[in-house]
Amino acid sequence: MLNRLSRPGALALCALPVLALLAVAGFAPLPFSLAQPGPTTNVLGESDGKPVIEITGAPTRDTTGKLRAVTIVATGPDASVHLGDVLDGWFAEDRAVMPRDSVYPAGDSTKEVEEHNKREMKGSQDAATQAALAYLGDQGKDIEVSLQLGDVGGPSAGLLFSLGIVDMLDGDGRGGDLTGGRSIAGTGTIDAAGKVGAVGGVSLKVQAADRDGATVFLVPKAECADAKASAPKSMRLVPVTTLKRTITDLTNLAKAPTC
After folding, report:
1. Which residues are catalytic?
2. In terms of DSSP H, where are the helices of 137-234?
3. Label partner for 28 (CA 20 to 30 A): which of 37, 119, 125, 165?
4. pLDDT tens, 100-153?
5. Is residue 226 scored above 70 in pLDDT?
6. pLDDT of 42-94, one tens digit each?
7. Is Hydrolase a UniProt keyword of this protein (predicted)?
8. Which class for 183: exposed (0-12), middle (13-18), buried (19 or more C-beta within 10 A)?
9. Closest Cα to residue 104, out of 196, 28, 200, 190?
10. How far apart are CA 89 and CA 233, in angstroms?
11. How far is CA 140 from each of CA 18, 150, 220, 248, rounded to the nearest angstrom?
């Protein structure tokens, strides 16, 4: 004969599998990546002891102000992320939890990701140079540009590269700096025609820019809402769509649109 379990006993028995699953989940790796604000680099200055932008074939200007390319740092494709890490990330303002496949192609190793990011960076540098020299017109002829940003990969510094080239060669076109002496940060891909594209991770990049003293942030127009979510009231968010429009807005910042 079977003895009937009391209600508390039955509940306890039913809870055992749930508790076991939670215990396993707490120790099993989960398919997520954790990201946080990364370093910023002034493209008008140096990275790893070498100029970010080197120009030959034309004299360059001495610039003031800063044009900061911003980054995020994410756990690698081989990193183990556990339930506790995910819960901490969800409740932290300076971290983000993202599906690993949205950050890294499924199955790629750390080495494969690094090679992919290098290719993306090289394509970004080539497009940024073409866009900047095309904007400068005749002034951009017979000029060679070399770009480097240390071990940073991916295409998101494209806009800042182009702006840096223009600032070093032409400034604001009136003898002054494109930055107006300000510390300006931003992000955005760029193509050879000067069109700016979205990048992702904008909320964290705004935090990195604020941490490093930027007062203006250039953000792809489609990502304004993400930027506003973490920007302090003291930071001006300028939506960008093309290189030409961005330069126009920087040279007349008081009348530039905001997010």
Report:
1. 156, 205
2. 158-169, 202-211, 224-228
3. 37
4. 776 776 667 888 888 888 999 999 999 999 999 999 999 999 999 999 999 898
5. yes
6. 999 999 999 999 999 999 999 999 999 999 998 877 777 778 777 777 777 88
7. yes
8. middle
9. 200
10. 24
11. 66, 25, 25, 18
Is residue 152 classed as helix, strand or coil in its secondary structure? coil
Token pair for 143: 């000029």
Tokens of 195: 């069109």
How many angstroms separate the CA atoms of 252 and 239, rounded? 14
State the pLDDT at residue 165. 98
Fold of 37-72+111-255: Ribosomal Protein S5; domain 2 (3.30.230)
Q: Tokens in use for 213?
A: 């003293």
Tokens 């760029």 belong to residue: 190
Q: What share of the chain is helix, strand, coil (3-state, %, to 5)?
A: 40, 20, 35
The domain spans of the chain are 37-72+111-255
